[in-house]
Design a protein that fits this description.
This protein has 204 residues and is of the alpha+beta class. 47% of the residues lie in helices and 23% in strands. The longest helix has 23 residues.
């Protein structure tokens, strides 16, 4: 028997980070295009609506119109976002150089993770230059994390530890010493050990 009726077709558009109105924080999003069709046996035959773009927050699952991506942050929010992005980058770099050796795979992972979390692309030269800057500033990983712990919420703390875990696993394996270092870092910024271990087991 023929089955007639409307069906929604969903087309993924892009992913990135945005300021979620419901979370009141910078989070990751998935944008998709939704269009309703008249269908026969689940086969779309005739479009019933125009394509509609939808943005979905990956944290709270809230959905918004595409123009939410154009929302501007006020000066305080923008300053916080810039400092948070800097914290992510510096934490990854300090972990990368903590063993005294800079691996090309780790550098590439830092670039890719930073781009995914911030929608900003760094060149290899820019990444290495920032690593030299952090090293010249005399920061240790533990001291730096302690200095930023009070301004991070739980989601921010988890993103920091997740980004560090991805860098540590960039060469295809994570040494016990690296796991212990990241767990220690999690505790420094006030993240539960169990949460840190869960992130380490599934950092992507």
């Amino acid at each position: 028997m023929a089955i007639l009726g409307p069906i929604d077709r969903i087309k993924p558009l892009k992913e990135g980070s945005f300021f979620c109105p419901k979370c009141n924080d910078q989070t990751e999003y998935r944008a998709k295009e939704v269009r309703r069709w008249f269908s026969l046996m689940n086969l779309p035959l005739l479009p019933l609506t125009s394509p509609e773009g939808v943005v979905e927050c990956t944290i709270c699952n809230g959905t918004y119109e595409m123009n939410v991506l154009d929302a501007k942050l006020n000066e305080d929010e923008q300053a916080f976002l810039e400092n948070f992005e800097k914290a992510i980058l510096n934490a990854m770099l300090l972990l990368m150089i903590s063993d005294g050796h800079i691996d090309d795979t780790e550098v590439q992972t830092v670039i890719e993770v930073y781009a995914k979390l911030t929608d900003k692309k760094l060149s290899r030269e820019e990444t290495l230059a920032q690593a030299e800057h952090v090293l010249a500033a005399g920061h240790t990983l533990n001291d730096y994390l302690l200095s930023i712990a009070d301004v991070l919420n739980q989601d921010g703390k988890q993103l920091i530890i997740r980004s560090m875990s991805l860098v540590a696993a960039a060469d295809g394996k994570m040494e016990d010493a690296e796991r212990n270092t990241i767990v220690e870092c999690a505790q420094i910024i006030g993240l539960a050990r169990t949460t840190a271990l869960q992130i380490l087991d599934n950092p992507s």
